[in-house]
Amino acid sequence: MSTELLYTSAPQGLRHGSRGFCTVLTTAGMPINVIGKLEAISSYRHLFPPDSNRASENPVSLAHQRVNLGGQVVSVLSRIAAYGTDYTGRTNKIAHHVTIDPSEMPAAGPAWLIGQGSVLRSEWLGQCETPASGPAIPRGDQSPRICTSWKSVAGDAGWGGVVAEAISQPDATPLWVIYPLNQQGRLLELIDESIALLPPTQRWRATFNTFAANIPPDVECKIRFVPVGTEEARFAASSGKAIDLTKHPSITTASQWVERARGLVRRESGTPISSGGFNAVQEVDVADPVESSWSSDDDAPAGPPPPIEPPSLPMDLIRGRERRKKLVMAGAVLTAVIGLTAAWTVARLMAGLPLLPGSAPPPAPQMPIDITPPIEEEKIAPTPAPVPVETLDLVLHYDKKQLLAFAVQHPDEETPLPGPVSLRGYVRIKPIPDDGENVPDIKRTKLVAWGGTAQSLGAAEELVVVTTQLTERTQTMTVQRLPSIPEPLGPTEVYWSRQTGDLIAIAEVDGSSASEWFSEQGRAYHTAAVKLARFADLADSIERESASLPPTLKEVTEAFFRHLFPGKAEARIESLIRRAGGVDLSEASTKLKASLRSKLEDSNKALKKDEQAALVQIVDDGGQLAQVAAELHDAFAVLAEGYRVEVPELKFLESETVVLRRVPLRLHFSW
């Protein structure tokens, strides 16, 4: 049976007297040593503070690790992430751990299970709990498949096989994967593809962490993902056992795992080839690509294990050794005889003598006369240099100023979305060398192609690029419009700056006639605007009613506003947008009511009728405020998850036959 533990900052934890960072939820009956161990692996390091514009980029640690608990090795699924600020205003985090019993482990593996979304929690509603059991564990299986996500992110599907091979090795040496922050949303699907290559009986051997910071030495974690620029990434780069996704590495070792990940099979079956690292080169003979599945000795059912006791007839072993010794000696004698015979034959022929004494000499060989005309030497065209490839994520962000303007209008559930909803983003195409260490100059580009027929670039034009942040900044760039993307994305325009190498994408989505992909995003966008406006209204109501309270009670509400909501309605909405809804008001609201009640009891003075009415309204508004904040948080979570779409590969060409650069591109519409 699964068990669970939730760890975050709270004014009162589950254990008597605990507060601050503590356990707030645990399965009933969980031993104290298990609780202590799970709390010990709940550490988290923020890369950006909660009030930073980049707070939403703080990585989420999704992990399957094995922990020794009282002499028993237990599988633990974990989610640890930044969680805004706590009840004291300090930086907060939330950690949820689930232990899995072997009988519950689905054949699909741990990454698949985490990806189901029903096992690990991402929020706490403020109530300490001791449920009777852990979350229900779904069952499921998956087949091996070509590692298309690895190909999209790293340029070669074979990297999925490198990771699978590392998992299959019995040693404890970790394999590091260095990644840029804009790819953190794809890490779970990468490790899941690698795990799917393994036989089902081995998949739960895969241990990993998508933000491997401060892992205790007694915790088993084989595949460790770390963001570029961190201390862990610098250590990983120097370890010699790392895959750096920021440098588009090349695989120089062929193994059966790499072939499987690429969707290739051997012409002849055999023992899987171990790569032994990233630098050895071993050529293998491969057959044609297959679609998405294959067979291998690794996938065959394992037979019964061989006996471990010594043989019952030791004399058979002795006789076998004697027979092998005699065969080796006979082979050596035969080799010597053949060598002497060959030497005799060569010597007699070179001297012009017959092979055997007394026999006639061999006739002189007659050279045939070649009457065929000379064949002109075939000219082989030089092999063109490989075209550099760089996989890029182009993130289009919602215009936060537009959402602010919409929320300030106080929309309700019937108010239509503003039209159109704007998203903008850019990504820079950096120079990378080809295999010959030459750096093709894509400024020579005359044609571009979205995977198919090459088309001309648009004429150079001036484009005013406006930031999507709340701060108003603009930049004028000289760009050329690319042909329309052959995907049903709605009106999404892509431009290229020849001077800077930037790809700029601008989307204008009409909420009334949006394509299917925008439906969920549109609902979340509308909910966010409505809840932002409602939040501001409730805050204004609390502040307005506070004017009717006696001074001792007014001090409590004023402190509440100073801490959370300075300014007036528009400033409060702007503050919430900057925090992307990351405000947990359940504790703040409870604390407000408790403080008002305490002050009222201490005063021993009856309230007037209007003061009583104001106090009741404030308490009611505070409760609604907490509920609205929770709904706002959920809406922003949907916007942040966004929508991802693969588009045909973008190619930059100097002519119809000369490709300068290939760019596999993925668009991500997100907050």
TrEMBL record:
Listed InterPro entries: GAP1-M, GAP1-N2
Residues covered by region (Disordered): 288-315
Keywords recorded for this protein, A-Z: Membrane, Transmembrane, Transmembrane helix
Keyword field contains Cytoplasm: no
Pfam families from the UniProt entry: GAP1-M, GAP1-N2
UniProt feature, compositional bias: Pro residues: 302-313
Keyword set includes Membrane: yes
Limits of the GTPase-associated protein 1 N-terminal domain: 1-122
TM helices/strands, residue ranges: 327-347
Residues annotated as domain GTPase-associated protein 1 middle: 149-245
UniProt name for this protein: Uncharacterized protein
